[in-house]
Each structure stands twice: as C-alpha cells, then as structure tokens.
C-alpha cells in the first residue's frame, strides 16, 4: 500500500502532462487556424510587415539600421499620436443619439430641426472645464454639455454647460479667468489664493461661484445632470421676426449630485466614474433621455427686467419654459479619439432660423471656439467624419493640410459664369436695430448679487450646509486679507445669512464684512 501511495504523485503528474500536452496541441491548432484567418499586418503604405518583433541591426551585436522603415514609421507615428488638448474642456466623454422635435416651433424659428416630428442625429460631449486631459470627473467644476445636431440644413452646435449661467459677462476676461482657475504656473497646483484674488475683482461671479460651490458643482454622473445653453440665442421665423431664447436640457433620470463626503470615496474607486456610468447604461439598453425646452423673451421685453437678459451671469426667473423636443443617447463611439477627442463643437455652427445674440460672452466664443479647433485639428477639421455635415458642403475653401474633399473643377471663386452656385435668401441674417456710438463700457444693469442670494435661499437646509462647507474650505486657504474680505462681502451682500455663516466658518471679522457689504451696489 505504501509503495502504491508513493507512486501516486508520479502517476498524477504523468496524467497531468498528458492532459497539458493535449491542451497545448489543441491551442496550437486553434492558433494556426486563427492566424490563417487573421488579416496581414501592414505599414502605412499598405505593404505587408515581415517582422514586427525585431529591429534590423548590423549583425547580431551591431547598431540598429536607419533603413528599417517599419521601425522608424512606428516611432514617428507614436510620437505624433497626441494632438493639442483643449485649453478648457479637455477631459470629456461622448455618445451618439437622436433628437426628436415633439412640438411645433415654426412660429419662432424657421429651422427645419424644430419642425414637429423631425428626427435629427446628434453627438453629445460631456466634460469638465478646468482639468487637463484625463482629469478626475469628481472635480468641483462646471460640466460641459455640448450637442452637435446633424440637421438637414447643416450642423448646429448647442454648446452649453450643466449650470445655466457663467462666471463673467464679457469675453475679454475669459483668458484671465481661466488662467486664475488653472494650476499655478510655478507649483502646477490649483490655488484658491489665485482663484479668489481674481474673483474678488469680479463681483458678477458671485452667482456662479455660489452654484459651483453648491453640490451642483460635483454631479454624480452625466445621465442625472441637466444642461443649459447658458447664452440666449436668436430664433428667427420665416417672416424675419426674431425672439431671444434660452435652452434647457432636463434629464428624465432626475438630477443627482455628490455631497462633500461622497467625493473622495467615488474618486478613490475611479477617476472616470461618470464615463463608466454613461457607457454601462447605454450597453444595458437603459438609454438616457433629456427633454429640451426654451424660454422666450421678445426684443421689446428686454428693458422690462431689472437686469440685462443678455448677461450670461443671469437666469431668466419667471419666464416660462416651452417644450421643444426629446433627446436619447443610444450608442457609444467606436473610437474614442476619432469621435470624442476630434469632435469640434463651436457656437458659431448655426443654421437658418438660429442666430447668435448680442451676449458679450457669446460674441467672443463665436471666434474663440472655431479658432481653437483650427489650432487643434487643422484647417479641414469640419471634414473629419465626426464633424462632417450630412448635407453636401459647397464652397471655395480649398487645400490646407489633410484635405480630402475630393473637389474638382477649374472654378474656385464666386461669382462665375463658368460654374454657377447660388445663394439662399432664406439664410440671410436678421436685422438688428442699432443706436449710439462705439464704446468700451460695462453693461448698465449689472445686478451682481441678487440672484446669488435667491439661489442660496432656495436651497434645502442640508444643501446650504454643504455649500458653506465647500466654499469655506477654500476660503480658509486665502492668505491675502483684502481678497478674503472682499469675497466675504460679496456673499454677505447676496444674503446676510450666507455671509454670516461663511464669516463664522473662516473665523473672520463679521462687523468688517458687514460694513464692506453695505458699501456695495448691485
């Protein structure tokens, strides 16, 4: 019995080797079959690759040869895999879907996109604003909510955020604001000292700062997040009449945000939690849905408000929402880079029936966004598949790097008798009455603090507590007392309780802040 037991391990090992050799033979056969069906690896010129494992060398111990075209090409292409990242909105994710116009908007806009029953393909890119590429999706930051509509009249880009307002009202301050919010150029760390040094000079930012430091500044995911055009656009009807409209995306999944104590736990598991959530939802067939509504103000009503309705730091309180349609996201891009990274959203991509308003922040974005896409992607970026309109593009924009338009013919100008193209009177711009002189001056009705106070008072008690905790945590890190007290006075001016709670949280002098706030004007 002992001898039998002693030989048992050897027999077991032998059986195991026989089984393994059988598995290996099966695997070898499967691999051979797989290689038979596999595509042949090629260089960029289409020529087959003979050896993708070893470089060409001068003998077994000599240097690598420059004539190894395959090696050189792999390194060249690898070195150029990255394009310039977006200065803002670098971290993002995207999805394809459709927009269906459920209500007739023809009395307001001649855009065929808004004709009841029209179904339009869309691509949506969600993003954070300040972090560089691959930043954490838990960052306290506005979220980009940009939608490209591939309409029957060309592409229309609705380029907005999850929050309905912005920090500043004039695009001339945009580079300064972003510089202040970006990492310190010395330490490469975002510093509240720099952030509030800047915003202490920008009282109109009080409203946006209040929203960003509320839990709205840390959405739980993209599905449960609302969106806004932020700016008013002009809607022009077939008669040439126009109104101003602000668009809102309302998530049918509801709205959910992260509380202060949840952020670290979520980020500790994944820095891309919102992307994972969106893609997992689509993969399961639980397609996220948003309803699009619009608020309308007539030109003659602009002066009836105690603020400027074309000021991007303001919401249109009390102006009713009108249903436009519904969007469903139902497909994840096949290639992240070719879609989400190369998609070029721009507020200047408009179609007949939709125009830019006189909003000063929007006016600057009309240039800036198109310009940054030219810098990132080259002159022919609108020919890339993700940006290419569904309708034919007919113009005399020619050549440039990576031009694949396939243009033919001798005439690349207009007008011409040799090759005629026509204008479309329906696409002519509306007419805006003007008065006065050229100027450089701020808007007349600023109302810098009131809406911040209204927002604070509308928050539930728990969310007010979270706002105070979030905001005071950064204010405590501000060493410059002038910056600190100026910021505290702005929040006090918005709402005295808001200011008092922040003063207590940071250990400041309440009487001094109250005096500063009393000297502020809306």
Automatic annotation (TrEMBL):
<dbReference type="InterPro" id="IPR024711">
    <property type="entry name" value="Catalase_clade1/3"/>
</dbReference>
<dbReference type="InterPro" id="IPR018028">
    <property type="entry name" value="Catalase"/>
</dbReference>
<dbReference type="InterPro" id="IPR002226">
    <property type="entry name" value="Catalase_haem_BS"/>
</dbReference>
<keyword id="KW-0575">Peroxidase</keyword>
<protein>
    <recommendedName>
        <fullName>Catalase</fullName>
        <ecNumber>1.11.1.6</ecNumber>
    </recommendedName>
</protein>
<keyword id="KW-0732">Signal</keyword>
<comment type="similarity">
    <text>Belongs to the catalase family.</text>
</comment>
<keyword id="KW-0479">Metal-binding</keyword>
<keyword id="KW-0408">Iron</keyword>
<dbReference type="InterPro" id="IPR010582">
    <property type="entry name" value="Catalase_immune_responsive"/>
</dbReference>
<feature type="domain" description="Catalase core">
    <location>
        <begin position="42"/>
        <end position="422"/>
    </location>
</feature>
<dbReference type="Pfam" id="PF00199">
    <property type="entry name" value="Catalase"/>
</dbReference>
<keyword id="KW-0560">Oxidoreductase</keyword>
<comment type="function">
    <text>Decomposes hydrogen peroxide into water and oxygen; serves to protect cells from the toxic effects of hydrogen peroxide.</text>
</comment>
<dbReference type="InterPro" id="IPR020835">
    <property type="entry name" value="Catalase_sf"/>
</dbReference>
<dbReference type="InterPro" id="IPR024708">
    <property type="entry name" value="Catalase_AS"/>
</dbReference>
<dbReference type="Pfam" id="PF06628">
    <property type="entry name" value="Catalase-rel"/>
</dbReference>
<dbReference type="InterPro" id="IPR011614">
    <property type="entry name" value="Catalase_core"/>
</dbReference>
<feature type="signal peptide">
    <location>
        <begin position="1"/>
        <end position="32"/>
    </location>
</feature>
<keyword id="KW-0376">Hydrogen peroxide</keyword>
<feature type="region of interest" description="Disordered">
    <location>
        <begin position="37"/>
        <end position="65"/>
    </location>
</feature>
<keyword id="KW-0349">Heme</keyword>
């Amino acid at each position: 019995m002992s001898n039998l037991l002693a030989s048992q391990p050897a027999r077991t090992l032998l059986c195991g080797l026989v089984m393994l050799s059988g598995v290996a033979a099966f695997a070898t056969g499967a691999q051979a079959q797989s290689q038979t069906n596999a595509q042949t690896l090629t260089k960029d010129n289409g020529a087959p690759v003979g050896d993708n494992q070893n470089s060409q060398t001068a003998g077994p111990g000599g240097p690598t040869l420059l004539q190894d075209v395959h090696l050189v090409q792999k390194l060249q292409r690898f070195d150029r895999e990255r394009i310039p990242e977006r200065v803002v909105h670098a971290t993002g994710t995207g999805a394809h879907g459709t927009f269906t116009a459920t209500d007739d908007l023809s009395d307001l806009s001649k855009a065929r996109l808004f004709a009841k029953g029209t179904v339009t393909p869309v691509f949506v890119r969600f993003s954070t604003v300040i972090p560089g590429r691959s930043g954490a999706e838990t960052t306290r930051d506005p979220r980009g909510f940009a939608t490209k509509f591939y309409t029957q009249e060309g592409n229309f880009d609705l380029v907005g955020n999850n929050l309905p307002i912005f920090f500043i009202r004039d695009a001339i301050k945009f580079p300064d604001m972003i510089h202040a919010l970006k990492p310190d150029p010395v330490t490469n760390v975002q510093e509240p000292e720099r952030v509030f040094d800047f915003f202490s000079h920008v009282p109109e930012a009080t409203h946006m700062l209040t929203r960003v430091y509320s839990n709205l500044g840390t959405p739980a995911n993209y599905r449960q997040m609302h969106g806004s055009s932020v700016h008013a656009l002009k809607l022009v009807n077939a008669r040439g009449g126009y109104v101003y409209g602000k668009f809102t995306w309302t998530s049918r999944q509801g709205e959910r945000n992260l509380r202060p104590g949840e952020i670290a736990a979520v980020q500790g598991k994944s820095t891309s939690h919102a992307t994972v959530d969106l893609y997992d939802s689509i993969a399961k067939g639980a397609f996220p849905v948003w309803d699009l509504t619009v608020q309308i103000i007539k030109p003659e009503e602009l002066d009836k408000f105690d603020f400027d309705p074309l000021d991007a730091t303001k919401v249109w309180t009390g102006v009713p929402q009108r249903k436009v349609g519904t969007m469903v996201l139902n497909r994840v891009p096949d290639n992240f880079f070719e879609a989400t990274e190369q998609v070029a959203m721009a507020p200047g991509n408009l179609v007949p029936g939709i125009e830019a308003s006189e909003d000063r922040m929007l006016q600057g974005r009309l240039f800036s966004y198109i310009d940054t896409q030219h810098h990132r992607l080259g002159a022919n970026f609108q020919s890339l598949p993700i940006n290419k309109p569904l309708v034919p593009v007919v113009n005399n924009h020619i050549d440039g790097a990576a031009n694949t338009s396939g243009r033919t013919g001798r005439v690349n100008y207009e007008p011409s008798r040799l090759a005629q193209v026509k204008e479309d009177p329906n696409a002519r711009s509306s007419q805006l009455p003007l008065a006065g002189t050229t100027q450089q001056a701020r808007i007349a009705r600023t109302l810098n603090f009131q809406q911040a106070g209204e927002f604070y008072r509308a928050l539930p008690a728990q969310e007010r507590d979270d706002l105070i905790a979030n905001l005071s945590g950064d204010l405590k890190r501000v060493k410059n007392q002038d910056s600190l007290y100026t910021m505290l006075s702005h929040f006090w001016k918005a709402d005295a309780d808001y200011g008092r709670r922040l003063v207590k949280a940071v250990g400041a002098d309440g009487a001094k802040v109250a005096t500063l706030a009393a000297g502020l004007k809306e």
